[in-house]
Amino acid sequence: MSAKLSIQNLSFTYADGTQALKNIHLDIRPRELFVLMGPSRSGKSTLLRLMNRLSDLVDGCQRRGTILFDGQDVFAPEMDVFALRRRVSMVFAIPTPLPGSIYENLTYGLKMAGLRTPSLLDERVERSLRQAALWNEVKDRLGDSAFALSGGQKQRLCLARSLALEPEVILLDNPTSGLDPISTSMVEESLFELKQQYTIVMVPHSVQQASRVADRVAFVLDGEVIEVGDESQIFVYPQDKRTEDYVTGRFG
Amino acid sequence: MTTNVPAPPKAPLPSWREKVIEGLIWLSGVSAVVIMGLIFFFLLREGLPTLGEVAWADLFSRRWYPIEDLYGILPLLAGSFLVTVGAVLIAVPLGLVTAVYLGEIAPTWQRELLKPIIEVLAGIPSIVLGFLGWVSLAPLIQSLGAPTGLTAFSGSLILAYMSLPTIISITEDALYVVPKEYRDGALALGATKWQTIWRVVLPAARSGIVIAIMLGIGRAIGETMAVMLVTGNAANLPALNAGIFFQPARTLTATIAAEMGEVAQGSTHYHVLFMLGIVLFLITFAINSLASWLVGSGSRRRARQ
After folding, report:
1. Interatomic CA distance for residues A4 and A2, integer angstroms
2. Cβ count within 10 A of residue A35
3. Going edge to edge, which strands form the sheet with A5-13?
4. Contact between chains at B188 and A94 (C-beta distance less than 8 A)
5. Would you call B71 helix, strand, or coil by DSSP?
6. B302 touches chain A (CB under 8 A)
């Protein structure tokens, strides 16, 4: 099966000399939920931010190697980075509703992409809110400020906002941090729906969450991929001692 | 099960030192209010007799010529209005664009170089700017075809230059406190840098930007010396034509400054000058109220959010 995202010999160094990623090789297949797991500061978020070039915003960093998205080099000079970010969309750990109503939050990206037909916008808003399991809670108050939502609702709003762009890949950087267990399970349930249609790369909140949602898992430690495999393999028969120690909770 | 509830710590009794310090803070807070009240009372006492001495119709007539007891304040109002509006039209767009460049686009080294320079500009005494306007700006404007270089427009340019540092500096501060997450959020949705600034950063910084503009206007409308030097000080009602900004004008502030020294205390002219003070006071009060209302309505909306 050809890879949706193919990370090839990727290294990344910040301006202060910290080497965040070392020679990463990973293939992420279409319509799988791929989990990047590892202790904090191991480079997972950096890797995620490279996939849609939000890493461009970092001054003075150095990158070697590349990422292919559907076979195209995302770092190629002719790559339209704004179109790339609509196709490879990102949801952050801290929900970041933008100032404005719920409806405006969902249509920001679409309007910036040039979509202005009201009926189409309405349709996209409803569909993406349904996909993010938020529609029933907000359908009667789309005009209210997005800041009035609870933490879990804000996070699903940000997810819906990404989905409204109809991306191909969704990058989730710890999307359930700070959520209560009920909201967490609602987000996790919507992930099962979403991976029928989208490729999802996720940094999980915990090892337990990784084992609940992942199709395949990469264990990342100090900027290196230690082990990649199916969820059952990584959690039941880890090959590497460090993976075993991590998934059994000995460190991390 | 019994629980040990710790006794609440006793509040330390305020010693005499505490009382003295509290008293001093109270005094300085109250004195601001008292001084403000006294100034207003004084303005009213000296200015209000005007209403008994000059008829309303004369006060709002078109001629200011105190030697012949003509006290029409319309030309002065128009002068202040023209100069201030001109300054705002120049300073606000320029200031906002500069602040956006500094805060959002400029590389770090440029920002670190430019920001202190702009803040130093705010410290230039207004008379120095007025002098510069008089010796270099006015001749330049005259050479461009105006009958005289001492015009409302010259005053607007000088005032705009004076209020620019305020507008730039405060707007940039307002942009700086917009959370980075907003920018990341917008960029992750495929927004370009410009779309992010226009649709996300500027709306989020709105209340700070309103304050910046209002403080800039406040500085412009109250300014006297620089304006006096470059506007020509002719108390004529400007002709309403295309060259409206290119006629000499006289502002309320300049009138008070120029005539107060020569007027007999207690005369009608004296009272009218204080009346001008009251009018100025009301204008600045209105601008400040408008600003706090604009900012307040923004924060009230956030509070509901």
Report:
1. 7
2. 27
3. A19-28, A5-13, A62-69, A72-73
4. no
5. strand
6. yes
Q: Report yes or no: A49 at the B interface, CB cutoff 8 Å.
A: no
Residue-level pLDDT at A126: 94
| Nearest-by-Cβ selection for B190 from A94, A99, A112 | A112
- ipTM, two decimals, is 0.78
Check CB contact of A48 with chain B, cutoff 8 Å: no
Report the C-alpha gap between A14 and B129 in whole angstroms: 47
Buried b or exposed e, range A4-31, using 16+ CB within 10 angstroms: bbbbeebebbeeeeeebbbebebbbeee
Q: Does A85 touch chain B (CB under 8 A)?
A: yes
Q: What is the pLDDT of residue B305?
A: 39
Closest residue, chain A, to B180 (C-alpha): A96
Interface list for A 123-152 with B (CB within 8 A): 145-148
Cβ-defined contact of B190 to A113 (cutoff 8 Å): yes
Cα nearest neighbour of A171 on chain B? B188
List the single residue in B179, B191, B304 with the smallest CB-CB distance to A112: B191
Instruction: Say if the Cβ atoms of B188 and A54 lie within 8 Å.
Output: yes
Distance between CA A241 and CA A90 in Å, rounded?
32
Pairing of strands A62-69, A19-28: unpaired
B26, with CB counted inside 10 A (0-12, 13-18, 19+), is exposed
pLDDT at B303: 44
C-alpha gyration radius of chain A: 18
B233-240: long-range pairs with CB below 8 Å, 24+: B233/B150, B233/B258, B235/B64, B235/B65, B235/B75, B235/B76, B235/B79, B236/B75, B237/B62, B237/B74, B237/B75, B237/B78, B238/B75, B238/B78, B238/B79, B238/B82, B238/B152
For A211-231, write each residue's pLDDT tens digit.
999 999 999 999 999 999 999
Q: With contact defined as beta carbons under 8 Å apart, do B181 and A94 qualify?
A: yes
Question: pTM for the complete prediction?
Answer: 0.75
From A108, A146, A147, residue closest to B189, measured CB to CB: A108
Q: Tell me the average pLDDT across B220-238.
A: 81
Contact A24, A36 (CB under 8 A): no
Q: Do A85 and B186 touch (CB under 8 A)?
A: no
Single-letter code of the amino acid located at B273: L
Q: Residue B191 and residue A82: Cβ atoms within 8 Å?
A: yes
